[in-house]
Amino acid sequence: MHGVEVHQPREVVVRADSSHRETLILVLTIVLLASLMALRFLAVNEAGGEVQLHPYQRIDNIFSKEERTMYRTLTASISEVVALRNREGLWPEAALLEDEEIPPFNNQFLPPTLRGYTWVGYDGGSWIDYLGQDETGTQKLTFILRLIDLHAGYHPHPHLGIDYDPKLPVATQVWFFPEPERAYPGERLPEAGWLWAVRPDDPVLRRASTVAPDAKANTEDVEAIFRDAEQAFEAMFPEKPN
Amino acid sequence: MVRALGSIAMVFIILLANAPSIRASDGRLQIGVTLHPYYSWVTNLAGDAADVLPVIPAHADPHAYQPRPEDIRRLSGLDVIVVNGLGHDDFIEPMLAAAGQQDLPRVNLNEGIPLVPAWNPDVATRDRDNPSETQQPPNSHSFISIISATQQIHHIAQVLGRLDPVHADVYENNARSYAKRLRTLLSEALSRLTTNSIKEAKIAAVHDGYSYLLQELGLELTAVIQPRHGIEPSPRQLADSIKRLKRADVDVLFTEMDYVKGFADVIREETGTRIFKLTHISSGEYTPDQFEKAMAQNLNIIAGALQQAN
Question: Complex ipTM above 0.90?
């Protein structure tokens, strides 16, 4: 029996990980999860309640007082232009609108500084663009009033509503370019760098609407934020190999 | 005790409001309007095709109006109501609720039209490349204008045409001819103004209710005296305004025909600025031509003031 050593049980104290570190990881996890949820909420809301401007849209408060007068006058003309088209079956030419004494096509209803604008209609069949250039160079903007018949086949995009929209026969837009005598760019206004003036309460900012083909900047921004957040999360908590 | 009396009065008002009202027996559209200009607009559009009923009494001031039981009772017979929706007729929603007309179709005239921002001396220039610029609250006086008025008149005609398709052509044709008459007033005033008289004019107003109309004439306000609509400036604010008017060398101050503005006399004495009174079109007898007459008067006064100033 001699030679046998009996080891007494030894007490080993196993300390738990630092509670500080555990708390820090927990807090960081919660913060990350909350951030991801917030980002997701913003992304979902893009088509809903949040006001989201496309790169080619500007809220109409950017206009100077004179530009705003022209903008107001253009939008005020829309009902009469559409009524004329409904009566005649064709989009009215700018000269007819002048004869009908509809401003801004007839400039006797404009302040002197806005009377340098001349208007030409570009009839696309289902839509028309009225281009207004200030040949005197007094003003800084060229305007386009665009009216689109959503129930008449091919037409340009973007616009409020959907094609053959049951609640919206005609979509109307005011576009501008920051030069007084900009040439007519054709139907693809966003691609040509033109800007669409929208009101702060404009339904196009909240309702379903079509977009220009290259107008994905907002969506891409949100996706990039998601990617960065996911990468940061993976860096902090790398998956352990089994 | 006061609370008990108040409750009894409220019950009384609601009972009266819910009493049967008289609806047109011939089925004509019954159109309510909250402001004086809207009465003129809608009567000109409707002609004999519909009845137009003002909500508030002729000489009541919409800024200080308190609903009466008989006013609420009239609402229960309406088919549609034309409203400002930007603060000039805040009294209407509680009245409609009391009349059980929460679902009454509204023609909100400031929805869907470009609005002029409320006057703010600090917002002088705007940046087209910075679309997130802080929003100014909109100016609710779009009815004191010609261009915005014609747009709103056409909007009313379209809504009435949808509610009453039989008379849709009447509303549209009347809107077109009424808009033409109103625009003639504008062109007559514009013909009296020269580019120089507009450029050189230094104009102030007691409040910014005339911004729409002034912009349509190419005019800009240099200063606005009242800190907010209906709020008299404090002695200090008045002193600041006088300093600003002197510094800006203001020629013309537009004050109000419908309200007594004692502080305008102080300004005239201190600055020598000429004072001209415009109408806000917010009281008086309801007549179809009230708006046209009032706007003709306003335009005539503005053009005359600028001619004198130059």
Answer: no
